[in-house]
Amino acid sequence: MLAVSLILSSCTSLQVTKLTPPPLLNSGPKLKIADVDVLAVSPAMEEFLERYILDYADKHTRLYLLANSVTSNGLLGFDYDEGLTLTASEAFQSRTGNCMGFANMMVALARRAGLKASYQEVLRRPEWSSYEDTVLLIKHVNVIVESPRYTYVLDVSGIKIDPAMRRRVIGDDYAKALYLNNIGAVALLDDDLPTAHAYLSSAIAVEPMLTDPWVNMGVVFGRNEQLADAVTVYNKALEIDNSSQSAMSNLYEVYLEQEDLESAEILQAKVDKYRRSNPYHLLSLSEEALEQARFKDSLRLLKKAIRKKDDDHLLYFAMAKTQYLTGEYAAAEDSLTRARELAPANMLAEYNRPWVELVAKDQKNP
Questions:
Q1: Of the candidates 280, 348, 293, 291, which has an alpha carbon nearest to the alpha carbon of residue 129?
Q2: 358 lies in which domain range?
Q3: What are the pLDDT digits (tens) for 55-74?
Q4: Do 28 and 156 sit in the same domain of this protein?
């Protein structure tokens, strides 16, 4: 499972050579992406500010009113949707979006109201999600807005942020590159490689020191069977940040596919250490153990995975199946109930099937 970086995140003085990624082969005419102003203020946003914010000369009052406008009972309100990356005007119109769309909207509104506003990346411990055969590395941004007397951090995600977590202010170009990277990553998840390549190339052009689009570009090339180009862009990501775990792990997989065992061996120890902390790698290992009827090993790996991520239905469903196959029927029912509670609506029919169907392909004698 390859890692894709997604922002549901300044720059350094490093110099990276040859900043243009290789072309995507056998994909037809090159797709061109029109430039977008992610901070453009729409007429509707202007009207909102004129009516509710700009009448007050005091900047703290403006800040207070703006911050309260996006609460659940506020004038605007805002529904968090981690899968929806929008510009400022799009987020304002729909009143929804992920952290990137919310940040674009609030930075644009605050600056138009005469306030100092900046994007802030929250440097959390690595957090993963999954989509089919892809592991997503989730990052987070919010907004800092200042008045002469106060500074507010605006965050609509509901994510619990430890006060001890490191943070950093990021520039507008960096934030725009995150936006473009997200659009490219979503296209990649849909297996639309030309669109993914175009948006990721745009992200790199805007901010070449951001590692995420380089890593995601490597996935694009890997899926397009351009393995040498995948190696090139993964190494570019590591040139920018030699601790990028996604780049190392993905590069390791490409070396194995190329049968370049010598290069793979150089990375293996670091990759193994990284993967031991990744719940979806642990899930993959548990599935291998289940196929070999090593039920205790499968349960041990799943328990470790759930300790690292306790809000994914896939992990609880895997636990339920393994518990059922080992005769732990009550525990299996509890795990399956938890999987149903966490699952999206389109998975409930799958999880409501009889046990004999749920475990059919995994049925082995313990």
A1: 280
A2: 279-362
A3: 999 999 999 999 999 987 88
A4: yes
